[in-house]
Amino acid sequence: MSVTIYGSACSSTRKAKQWFSRNDINYVERNVMKDELTVQELQSILRMTVEGTDEIISTRSKVYKDLNLDIESLPLQELLELIKEHPRLLRSPIIVDAKRLQVGYHEEDIRQFLPRKTREYQWLQWRTNHLSLADG
Q1: Taking phi first (over 0 means left), then psi (-120 to 50 degrees means alpha), and beta for anything else, what does residue 101 get?
Q2: What pLDDT is recorded for position 134?
Q3: Residues 51-89: pLDDT tens digits?
Q4: Calpha distance 23→6 (Å, rounded)
Q5: 10 flagged as catalytic
Q6: Tell me, what DSSP letter sits at residue 49?
Q7: Neighbouring residues of 66: CB distance < 8 A, sequence distance ≥ 6
Q8: Rounded to an integer, what distance in angstroms lies between the CA atom of residue 78 and that of residue 71?
Q9: Is pLDDT above 60 for 39?
Q10: Residue 111, burial from CB neighbour count under 10 angstroms (0-12, 13-18, 19+)
Q11: Which residue is catalytic, options 4, 8, 10, 88?
Q12: CA spacing 20 to 30 A to 125: which of 57, 74, 96, 134?
């Protein structure tokens, strides 16, 4: 499984990288500030979203406010070019593999990247620990 973490040097990206390292999951880091995303990469990220650009655009970012964007009125290609020019428009991190996408670092949601057998084992351990506490 190949995981890519697209992000900037922020605490959420650092937490995501630490989580993957702690769980022995290989990942590739792409610092979007230093290594510009291509339009094709942005399109492939967008294809995995549920909510489209709303899911990946950081509307609270300074760049977003400074540009005074009306995303709804922009043609998609123009928006993708704008993101290329201003990568801080993206939320960080954006974590993807072949089947999954996660935007931002969320402790519970990131577990989706654990291999199924690991998740099952951890669930069994949790259940055993919590059921034995309830019995005692």
Answers
A1: beta
A2: 55
A3: 988 999 999 999 999 998 888 889 999 999 999 999 999
A4: 19
A5: yes
A6: -
A7: none
A8: 10
A9: yes
A10: middle
A11: 10
A12: 96
By three-state DSSP, how is residue 72 classified?
helix
Asked whether 3 and 96 are in contact (CB, 8 A), the reply is: yes
Q: What is the pLDDT of residues 90-109, one digit of tens each?
A: 999 999 999 999 999 998 88
Q: Taking a C-beta distance cutoff of 8 angstroms, is the pair 16, 5 a contact? A: yes
Q: In 46-70, which positions are buried (b, 16+ CB within 10 angstroms) versus exposed (e)?
A: bebeeeebebbbeeebebbeeeebe
Structure tokens, 130: 């919590």
C-alpha torsion sign, points 68, 106, 1, 26: positive
- Dist CA 29 CA 93 (whole Å): 10
Pairing of β 3-7 and β 27-31:
parallel
Cα gap 118→59, rounded to integer Å = 36
DSSP E strands: which ranges in the chain?
3-7, 27-31, 94-96, 101-103
**The one-letter amino acid at 55:** E
Among the listed residues 85, 84, 87, 58, the one whose alpha carbon sits nearest the alpha carbon of residue 71: 58
